[in-house]
Amino acid sequence: MKTFEKIVPLREQLKDARFTAAKEGKQIKVALVPTMGYLHEGHASLLRKARAENDLVVLSIFVNPIQFGPNEDFERYPRDPEKDLALAEREGVDFVFLPTVEEMYPEPSRTHIKVDGLTDVLCGASRPGHFDGVTTVVGKLFHIVQPDRAYFGQKDAQQVAVITRMVEDLNFDIEVIPCPIVREADGLALSSRNVYLSPEERQAALVLSRSLEDARAKAEGQTPVNAGELREEIREKISAEPLANIDYVEVSDFPELSPLEEDERVDAAGRQKGVLIAVAVKFGTTRLIDNVILTKRVNP
């Protein structure tokens, strides 16, 4: 496993790997797994999938300042590069890219990538500019690495939808691979920010997965249910937890992310569109997101 802090040496190594393979009559597949570090089993699952499906795996670790708002947790975002590198080596990563902020943004960036519509709802509504920062840094990483496939966790379903649309709109020759949410045994979705939770807050946070699974069961049941009913039931269950402070509870088309009408029926039969049931909730100062996706829906 090789580590790189600079863009040029990483690019040279990638070019060498592709050139060497071409001389042997081969065409290698390169995977990119973009992360902000403080890696956990969810990230490991992305790396394992990337390793199984590609010839060369690149892991990027970069806490991207331009996707954090002025009152968010950039400075205290958890970091543990030594642990991250140990996990990367264990999972068979070939190259790790660990740039500094100065390497990625030697001057304040005047160029940003914006995906209209998809970034104004859900997390984008309460974190203005967040997804512009995400798409810009991911676009930079795509240009630096030029991967064939890029792997993202479905826990941030909005990010998956936004990046996928960016790739389509800008004709990146990259396949975006969404990967399932990885959870603790008690249902809590793995997140680097879980480290911020007190024991009481962590226990309270289990209400997220419980309420979402109840909503999934109801939507997939025999009795028709509409989007308004699901939103209200999820809100009631989360609000019953004293430590929970709801940012949003939403039921939307996926991947378009347009909210379903209150009386629009939700279930798992029928048409090709998916349904995203998503929540964002604060426990103390820690904001957590979670979701479930139904693969199809039916209108009344």
Written account of the structure:
It is a single chain. This protein has 300 residues and is an alpha/beta fold. The protein contains 10 helices and 11 strands. Strands 1-4-3-2-5-6 form a 6-stranded parallel β-sheet, sandwiched between helices. The longest helix is centred in the first third of the chain and has 17 residues. The protein is globular and about 60 Å long. The chain starts with a strand and ends in a 6-residue tail after the last strand. The model has no long low-confidence stretch (mean pLDDT 95).
The radius of gyration over CA amounts to 20 Å
Secondary-structure element series:
EHEHEHEHHHEHEHHEHEEEE
Mean pLDDT reading: 95
Low-confidence stretches: none
Question: What is the helical fraction, as a range of percent?
Answer: 25-40%
Taking the sheet with the most strands, its summary is: 6 strands, parallel
Number of helices: 10
Our measurement of the CA-to-CA distance between the termini, rounded to an integer number of angstroms, reads: 54 Å
Please give the number of β-strands.
11
Shape: globular
The percentage of residues in β strands lies in 15-25%
Any chance you could write out the topology, listing elements then pairs?
Layout: E1 2-4, H1 7-23, E2 30-35, H2 41-53, E3 56-61, H3 81-90, E4 95-97, H4 101-104, H5 123-126, H6 130-145, E5 149-153, H7 157-169, E6 175-179, H8 199-204, H9 206-219, E7 225-226, H10 227-239, E8 244-254, E9 265-266, E10 274-283, E11 286-294
Parallel strand pairs: 1-4, 2-3, 2-5, 3-4, 5-6
Antiparallel strand pairs: 7-9, 8-10, 10-11
Catalytic activity: (R)-pantoate + beta-alanine + ATP = (R)-pantothenate + AMP + diphosphate + H(+)
Subunit structure: Homodimer.
Pathway: Cofactor biosynthesis; (R)-pantothenate biosynthesis; (R)-pantothenate from (R)-pantoate and beta-alanine: step 1/1
